Amino acid sequence: MRENKKLIIVGIGETATIAYEYFLHDSLYEVAGFSVSGQYMKGNQYLDLPLVAFEQVEEFFPPDAYDMYVAISYTHLNRDRARMYYAAKEKGYKLANYISSRAFVWHNVELGDNCFIFENNVLQPFVKLHSNIILWSGNHIGHRTVIRDHCYVSSHVVISGYCDIGEYSFLGVNAAFADHVKVEADCIIGMGAVMVRNSERGKVHVGNPAKPLGKSSYETFGIEVTR
After folding, report:
1. Does the predicted model carry a pTM greater than 0.85?
2. How far apart are CA 195 and CA 224, in angstroms?
């Protein structure tokens, strides 16, 4: 990445505001503006920077001159962030990563795009992060673990070695995973849950040891089973 590359942030919520702070003070990017779907427009500025409708964003900020970061939380089990991620790629934007200067990321970690890694994360050797992933602060990602697309890992999660976290999953604060645990897609792992065995797709797991609830993750987030 060349110095002072210009960045557009998609979103105007708290996640976008926090992303702006980190990109502004701890990256080589210059945040040039914000974009959001036209139906959510609130004026033409956000944080004293231009705010434009996503439907016309390339007219104001062409993708050959600006990168983009989609700063949307885990709403609808990460579907909203995924939808805008794919829409940005269709428009031709390069999607930026943020890696905190206070994170430990081993040299051979593989990283997709539109990933946000907060401070005090530890990513050990041979970890693979796919794309559109948020790692909030203080997580431990053990060696050879894979985290697949569109996941959200909250704070102080401990994932041991050789784990596989399925796409669209949400991992709650202080969750812990034994070695070799496989979490299927669309799972919610509750706060403080201890995963000692593999999960089924679309389940909500709570407790120590963690067990699935009767209510699915789709019911919890109010979404259709199809993607």
Report:
1. yes
2. 26
Tell me if the bond preceding 62 is cis, omega within 30° of 0. Answer: no
Residues of the chain with CATH 2.160.10.10: 98-221
pLDDT digits (tens, 9 = 90+) for 11-66: 999 999 999 999 999 999 999 999 999 999 989 999 999 999 999 999 999 999 99
Q: Tell me where in the chain the CATH 3.40.50.20 domain(s) lie.
A: 6-90
Q: Strand pairing partners for 49?
A: 46
193 closest CA partner among 213, 173, 179: 173
| 46 contacts 12 by C-beta, under 8 angstroms | yes
> Edge-to-edge, what's the strand order for the sheet holding 122-123?
104-105, 122-123, 140-141, 158-159, 176-177, 194-195
Residue 191 has pLDDT above 70, yes or no: yes
CATH tag, 98-221? 2.160.10.10
Q: Which CATH architecture has domain 6-90?
A: 3-Layer(aba) Sandwich (3.40)
